Amino acid sequence: MPTIDIHKQDLEELTGRKFTVSELAEVAQYFKGEVESADGHNIKLEIKSTDRPDLWNVEGIARVLRAHYSKNQGVPKYKAKSPKTTINVSKKVKGIRPHIAAAIVRNIKIDDFSLRQLIQTQEKIAGTFGRKRREVAIGIFNLDKLTAPLLYTAEKPDKIKFEPLDLGKEMTMAEVLEIHPKGKEFGHLVKPFAHYPIIIDADNKVVSMPPIINSEHSGKVTTRSKNLLIEVTGLEMRYVETALNILAMSLADRGGTIEQVNISDANGTTIVTPTFGVKDMSVPKSLINRTFGRHVSDSEIKSLLLKSRYDINHIDKTKSGHAHIEYPSYRQDIMHPIDVVEDMLISYGYNNIEPIYPIMSTQGKLSKETNRNKRIRELMVGTGAQEITTFILTNKTNLFQKMNLTEDNIVELTNPVSSNWSTLRNWLAPSLVEFLSKNTKVDYPQRIFELGQVVNLNKRSETGTIDEYKLAYAEAGSKVNFTRAKSILQSIIRATGKSPTFITQDYPSFIPGRSAEVKLGEKSIGIIGELHPKVLTNWKIEVPVVCWEIKSI
Amino acid sequence: MNLKLLAETLQPAEVILLKALSKSKVLDSHNRMSNVAFMRAAMYLSNKKLVRILKSEKQVITLMENGIDAAKKFLPELILANALKKESLTFKRGEKLLGSDKFRFAIGYLRSGNYVRVEKGIIYLTSEGKNLKTTPEMNLIKKLSKSELNLSKLSAAEKASFLALSKRKRVISLVKRTEYNVRITPRGEEILTNLPRIPGIELNSPSVIKSGIWKSKKFRRYDVEAPVPDTHLGKKQPYMQFLDDIRTKMVELGFKEMNGPLIETEFHNFDALYQPQNHPARTFTDVYKLKNPKMGKLPNKKFVDAVKAAHETGGKTGSKGLQYSWNDKISKQLMPRSHTTPVSARQMMKGIEVPGKYFGVGRVFRPDVLDATHLLEFNQLEGIVIDKDLSFANLLGMLKKFAIEAAGAKKVRFFPDYFPFTEPSVQMDVWSEKLNKWVEFGGAGIFRPELTESLGIKEPVIAWGLGIDRMFMQKIGSRDIRELFADNIAWLRKQGAIE
Predict the structure, then answer these.
(1) CATH 3.30.930.10 residue spans of chain B
(2) Which CATH number applies to A278-350?
């Protein structure tokens, strides 16, 4: 979720209205925002619309709020002057970083607010929306230091030398990846290729090495810069154009004049960017009515659409008709009419909607599994044991080594946060023994049980695994004995109408001669035994422990 | 209780102890009783205020493993001296006899006491050496082998030996012991004159009942006011109990319970829920991946094709789709489920009743670091409601009802939110009386048509996934989420079962 810093006075100037912090917290719902902290005029906002990069800066937020507090509604309108500048695109970038779009912004007054916002917007758009510059990288340049036309091409890493931003010396592109902090951070995006993308101006001066770093010569934007070039490169044109539009609109909102740029490829095809185009969509009135849960009149539809910054071509009169709308092309999040309806609901205000509990005649029911588990747990409580609940995540040391077993193949995580939690348990008893090991200072006897899930590998299963509930019991104390633990187990199984048999069987976790396999007919359902002193010592438990574990019966 | 009745509660051991105390006033043991029996009788008498138990600390000396060894086999210096009585030894043979560490100590000890002299590598006993039978240290060890000794009661000579032995490796150790002295009270003296002439029947039993002896003889009275230890009742784990209660509540509201596997394919965890394959929330910083097993199987082809089409072009769902090339290999990858919504997806694929209400409670896994506010595995409460014309107002109504009925909330408020699989999406806050503030309760929405229609559902489906753990913490006023999976049995024993 993007978090952005804004200055309240900056927002007020862009919106044309003053806000208290608590008012801002209230209206933040219109842009799915939340005030995270406010320190005087410095406000930190969390923006929950991860699908709306156009809302990740103060200009975007002001664009939403203006529609609620002024007649500035409908699709935000931006004009762009015809292109005078060209960027030629070489064939060489194909397969590396094929797309580029650019805009020129003239006569912009850059102050501290706008410079900080510009840097933040660039970071958030390239970082989050651009997937850490993979999909989208942005460069902003002092136009007055460039000579058109520019060339977007790719060159061998050690062919061209230039001075990258903030390092004070010339170096090759290969050296940039080695030495420059940005080269180290983003170098992996170009390293697999024999040629690295580069932008060069008509005087053969390097402008930028996308998506890594700008040149010191033209890539330094300060409060003294008046005319800017914005360049966006990436893998897909729809993301590249969206990012460019967001930046261009922000600077236009601050008084800059936008001028288009020609993008010409080697085949002589030229496109012009940015275009502030619109797309259309027909939203069924029935979908609006159904989602609101009431009839919404045409005039209300119209007013809500305008507030949500849509334009309306027309609204069909008939009930089964549509609202035919236009929306700005940078709204990549609009995929289905329901997306438009949500915006209308937000503009209406969620808390203005009367919640209606749906009257439905349905029959509630617990799952078979829960019903059975509940009964068994009740029986176990009846034996006087304390129920516990533990984590399914654990580690091989607990499951095998500490239990005196040889390691087996089990479900393992690729990316554990800690080696303590790196596998899913394949049996339950170690969780109980671990619990006992944490309670050696509490008075004995301790009698505990858990009915919990374990996961085992299974090649035939859809998920490569089978998880099942197991019931495990342990008692610890100087006077615990096998007889009582066995008696409890036998009685629990008998209470379910079945009769277990116990077959002499040694297991490494238990004292030889003091463990058994538990069977129902021919089927093995579990084990019971007195833990081997080796196991107890591994867990630093100093009293005898008898335990058993069975499949949930 | 008056003194006469109290006298009738006394057990034989208590009477013996009282009588002994009336002679010697203070005792710390009794020769006709084990220490345990002595302390037990003293405790009973103390409860009845007939004696006072005075507690004091003392330091005692006990033997450690090398000391126990020496008690059986002598200290090394004496072993060496005795060997030398038979014949003079070279260093080499001496070392062989005792081992090099012990030998070096023994020869040092004997030389400094002038018991031996060494000439040209051969050890000879001196005349003092020939008379050496034992040492003060050895005497102390022998004494200690019979019983531990009170440090403050050692003689001056013993104290010197004690200090010498303390410097040697694992021979003796000093241990703190609590000492109990029992002293009779005036009331105790008085009760001795009130003892019943014939002692009461101690143990009631079938033979006592049958014999009729109770007709002529009284039973010994019990001190029924005496304190007794607690019984640790068998109880459900409080968090499990809470989950039981939630399930019951959901059934009362007309919900059927659904279940799903802990390990999921990315198909069910993400793709079927219309979450794009390059979404950042699908990366290893947000969810766990599996090293073993790695790949699962995809479900029925009709679902796979519909989901693929929905992602790529919107398919037949009236959507533009996510416009990228969907990869079935990614979809087959396995992971521990990161939320319970795949359970809903599975239920919809199996087929659901319309109208229908379903819920599921289950463990989910996220790569967080375990601390007071984060668990790496926790429970979610998943719910879906389906009917022909369900509205967003119905979703809010459902959530509000649930917050009030299941969580006991009084006030709720709603905020727009974003989830990849719902539209519209909402976040609900509830007013917490305990914390006197709004608390985040959970997210919900109406499933996107791309999701439901791909799974063969035409009607709108209301859905939510609540982090139910925070609801429980609020209920018990806990600030540490780790208490949910309490690993402290003392805490569990203390928790009440009835509100």
Answers:
(1) 239-494
(2) 3.30.56.10
CB contact under 8 A, A356 and B288: no
Pair of tokens at residue B256:
């059927």
Residue A199 β-bridge partners: A152, A208
What is the DSSP secondary structure assignment for residue B199, as one 8-state letter? P
CATH number for the domain formed by residue range(s) B239-494: 3.30.930.10
Residue A172 pLDDT class (50, 70, 90 cuts): very high
Best residue of A129, A346, A388, A468 to probe chain B, by most B CBs closer than 10 Å:
A388
Q: Do A350 and B398 touch (CB under 8 A)?
A: no
CATH number for the region A3-69 comes to 3.30.56.10
Residue A157 has pLDDT above 90, yes or no: yes
A80-273: CATH class: alpha beta
Going from N- to C-terminal start, the domains of chain A cover 3-69, 80-273, 278-350, 368-551
pLDDT of residue A178: 93
**A153 pLDDT more than 80:** yes
Predicted-complex ipTM score: 0.91
3-state SS assignment for residue A343: helix
Question: What's residue B499's pLDDT?
Answer: 59
Beta carbons of A296 and A336 less than 8 angstroms apart: no
The Cα–Cα gap between B162 and B176 comes to 16
pLDDT of residue B372: 78
Beta-strand pair A446-457/A386-387: parallel
**Confidence band, pLDDT 50/70/90 cuts, at residue A85:** very high
For the stretch A487-501, pLDDT in tens is 999 999 999 999 999
**What's phi and psi for B189, nearest 5 deg?**
-60, -40
The pLDDT value given to residue B497: 65
Residue with tokens 């928790």: B495
* Residue in B closest to A131 by C-alpha: B280
Using CA atoms in the order A22, A28, A34, A35, what is the torsion angle rounded to 10 degrees?
-40
- Point out the residues of chain B with pLDDT beneath 50: none
pLDDT of res. B66: 87
Report the mean per-residue pLDDT for chain A. 94
Residue A351 structure tokens = 């808390």
Q: Which of A365, A389, A435 sits opposite B257 (nearest CB)?
A: A365
Cβ neighbours of residue B186 closer than 8 Å, sequence gap 6 or more: none
- At A202, the pLDDT band (50, 70, 90 cuts) reads very high
The per-residue pLDDT for A373 is 95
Nearest C-alpha of chain A: how many angstroms from B416?
6
CA B391-B396-B397 angle, to 5 degrees, is 90
Q: What single-letter DSSP state applies at residue A164?
A: B
Q: Matching CATH topology for A3-69 and A278-350?
A: yes
Nearest chain B Cα distance for residue A449, angstroms:
10
Please answer whether residues A243 and A235 qualify as being in contact, where contact means their C-beta atoms are separated by less than 8 angstroms: no
**In this structure, which CATH number among 3.30.930.10, 3.40.50.10090, 3.20.20.70, 1.10.10.10 belongs to the domain A368-551?**
3.30.930.10
